[in-house]
Design a protein that fits this description.
By secondary structure, the chain is mainly alpha-helical. It contains eight helices and no strands. Helix 3 packs antiparallel against helix 4, helix 3 runs antiparallel to helix 8 and helix 4 packs across helix 5. The longest helix is centred in the C-terminal third of the chain and has 23 residues. The radius of gyration is 17 Å and the shape is globular. It starts with 13 loop residues before the first helix and ends in a 9-residue tail after the last helix.
Length: about 170
């Protein structure tokens, strides 16, 4: 897949293929931003209100999982699903208390498994599905939802790069 081109991709309808290209670029650059980090570095808190790099990785996976349920399955995610995803979705105090002690491979595995499902589900759909309104109280379609997954991940990649550049001296890989 071309890294610096947005174009239709084999296996997807044209607009979905372009979206997959954007999702892929966002993910490749996110993974590059955390390459080589240790568990201690992933858990480091820049200040008492900061999210850790690990928490931001968990957030990227949780946001994608939430939108999978919301767009690929009828209805909204249920309370149990929301409860399991909540520390990573909301971050903050709950995320700081729960999301720690994981190595990089575990975060990358979650991201990869989540993305594999997204790609398989998107391959089963067409551009008409992408543009159709979702059954929600706000005027949203699946195209906006998956755009949001990409832009949220890109935003947090920037935070990760900022946090990585401020890891304590001697801790950067």
């Amino acid at each position: 897949m071309p890294l610096l081109r947005i174009e239709p991709l084999a296996g997807y309808t044209p607009t979905i293929g372009r979206l997959v290209g954007m999702l892929t670029y966002s993910r490749q650059t996110l993974v590059a931003a955390v390459d080589g980090l240790t568990t201690a570095q992933l858990d480091h808190l820049h200040d008492p209100q900061a999210n850790s790099i690990g928490a931001l990785l968990a957030h990227a996976a949780a946001v994608e999982q939430w939108y999978q349920r919301f767009t690929f399955e009828p209805g909204s995610p249920n309370e149990l699903e929301n409860g399991v995803l909540m520390p990573a979705l909301e971050l903050g105090d709950l995320g700081r208390a729960v999301i720690k002690g994981r190595d990089l491979a575990s975060y990358l595995d979650d991201l990869q498994t989540t993305r594999a499902r997204t790609l398989a589900e998107l391959a089963r759909r067409d551009d008409a599905w992408l543009e159709a309104p979702l059954p929600t109280s706000v005027a949203m379609n699946a195209h906006w939802a998956w755009f949001h997954v990409a832009e949220d991940e890109t935003n947090h990649r920037g935070q990760i790069r900022w946090l990585r550049g401020r890891l304590p001296l001697g801790s950067a890989p």
